[in-house]
Amino acid sequence: MVLRHEEILQSPSVWRPRTPEEAVARKRALGADAVFAAGGTLLRTRWEAGTEAIPRHLIDLGSIEGLSGIWLQDGDLAIGALTALDDCLNDPLLGRHAPIVAQAIRTIAGWSVRNVATIGGNIVSRTGDSLPALLAADASLVWIGEDGERTEKLADWLSEPIPDRARVRLLAQVRIPLGGDDSIANAKRFFAFHKVGRREAFTPSLVTVALCGSLEPDGRLTGIRISAGGGQTVPARLKRAEELLTGRMPDPDALGEVYEQVAADYAPAPDPFAPDMYRKLTAANLVVTELWKLTAAGEAAGGKEGAPCR
Ligand SMILES: Cc1cc2nc3c(=O)[nH]c(=O)nc-3n(C[C@H](O)[C@H](O)[C@H](O)COP(=O)(O)OP(=O)(O)OC[C@H]3O[C@@H](n4cnc5c(N)ncnc54)[C@H](O)[C@@H]3O)c2cc1C
Q: Which helix (H) or strand (E) is 75 found in, with range?
């Protein structure tokens, strides 16, 4: 859908609520004529492309206190939804506890955009490049709605086919668990995030993959999480590939099977510049290459040392 010029050019009223509850109530009152705005970077690209009209009302979330920052809470790393992507990168807690997420954020846009774009906006878009890394880190979302606060797994929210537009809610936090069942002593933790675009840097993604897990002292893989997205694809966990690997050694048989499984299960949204098959094989190659780096042959060839997933 491309809009007419006069449909795009209209000046919205800007509302500055002080609390999440006030923002939700304002949105409920104004309905489809109002849009939440965080950094506004994605909204702006949609308005400029003419794929979305400038709404009659903008509800600016930037004036709400308590939605920014990164801290430790109840065994989780908590990230306020209004935290700018660049502030995420500069925060030592994120680097220490969720380096895979930091790695993904580093690939998003350039500094001038990351300086105002928020992690919440990236998530709510449902196609942001931080999402595969957050899925691999087993993140949850904390929402504030008309019926109060609700936490749900990011994977569950993304698997909803069409978000319920009638439900008004504001993303308040992203939570990443600090330790889980897979935090096994002496196991070698590993993680990787890759974004492949149309060029080397400052590019929209075509394929994104994230994976993390542990290599136990006996050489078996545990706690594997693999996810993939890219472009207009809503990212998802690749559960069958995860199951295939769990308890196995990353030997040539396992890697061959997981290659086939990733190529079969990763379902990229259509892109006018890159055929599905190219993107499926790219995702499969990226996942298998990371797993191969864990093998003796991979390490001998210069594969990187294990590192914490989160
Ligand atoms: C030049 C340029 C390059 C870009 N490159 C990339 C890239 O490489 N990778 C990538 O992933 N993105 C990219 N983007 C898109 C965008 O910058 C990011 O997705 C960004 O993180 C969006 O955050 P924002 O705060 O600006 O969101 P906004 O534009 O403010 O909002 C985006 C959507 O989320 C909703 N929303 C925002 N915050 C909340 C909240 N707390 N609760 C409920 N709803 C909310 C808004 O209503 C809107 O629908 C790029 C944008 C530009 C302009």
A: none
Show the low-confidence residues of the chain (pLDDT under 50). Answer: 181-183, 305-310
In this structure, the answer to whether residues 204 and 118 fall within a common structural domain is no
Read off the pLDDT of residues 7-40 as tens digits, 9 standing for 90 and up. Answer: 555 689 999 999 999 999 999 999 989 999 999 9
CATH number, position 232: 3.30.390.50
Residue 261 sits in which domain range?
188-300
Q: Is the dihedral of CA 31, 32, 33, 37 positive or negative?
A: positive
* Ligand 1 proximity of 90 Cβ (cutoff 6 Å): no
Q: Report the pLDDT value the prediction gives residue 282, as an integer from 0 to 100.
A: 98
Ligand 1: centre distance to CA 279 (Å): 24
State which ligand 1 atom lies nearest to the alpha carbon of 129.
11
120 lines ligand 1 (CB under 6 A): yes
What is the DSSP secondary structure assignment for residue 62, as one 8-state letter?
Answer: G
Nearest atom of ligand 1 to the alpha carbon of 172: 41
d(C-alpha 79, C-alpha 83), whole Å: 7
Taking the centre of ligand 1 as the mean of its atom positions, its distance from the CA of residue 86, in whole angstroms, is 13
